[in-house]
Specification:
The chain contains five helices and no strands. It has about 110 residues and is mostly helical. Helix 1 runs antiparallel to helix 2, helix 2 packs parallel to helix 4 and helix 3 runs parallel beside helix 5.
């Protein structure tokens, strides 16, 4: 919905509904990477830089596999690129992408 040009106006309402559902899941206990990554993506969609930064920390703390932050970075890149095509400022979102990409990168060789 965000990638369309123009974006679907119904997307804002869905962000609130999905955020509520994820917050309930987290409150129920045992959240995983995807719960925090979903909140991160929702914060980016809502253009809430502070919430995105907080969710980034939670997501990075719960990474189990390198492909998890890689997938989230890809999703955020698609959102950022769509916004850039609409001339929307998105520099802070690129920084979040970079943090996820660094976490997804393979460790340097030992030695």
């Amino acid at each position: 919905m965000e990638l369309k040009n123009p974006p679907d106006p119904r997307r804002a309402a869905l962000v609130h509904v999905v955020r509520y559902a994820v917050e309930r899941r987290i409150a129920a206990g045992q959240p995983d990477y995807w719960d925090h990554a979903t909140l991160l993506e929702l914060a980016v969609l809502a253009k809430d830089e502070a919430a995105a930064a907080a969710s980034l920390g939670d997501a990075l703390a719960n990474v189990r596999e390198r492909w998890e932050p890689e997938t989230t970075a890809r999703n955020l890149r698609l959102i950022r690129e769509a916004r850039e095509r609409r001339n929307e400022r998105v520099a802070w979102a690129a920084e979040i992408e970079d943090a996820l990409a660094r976490r997804a990168a393979p460790p340097p060789p030992a030695g």
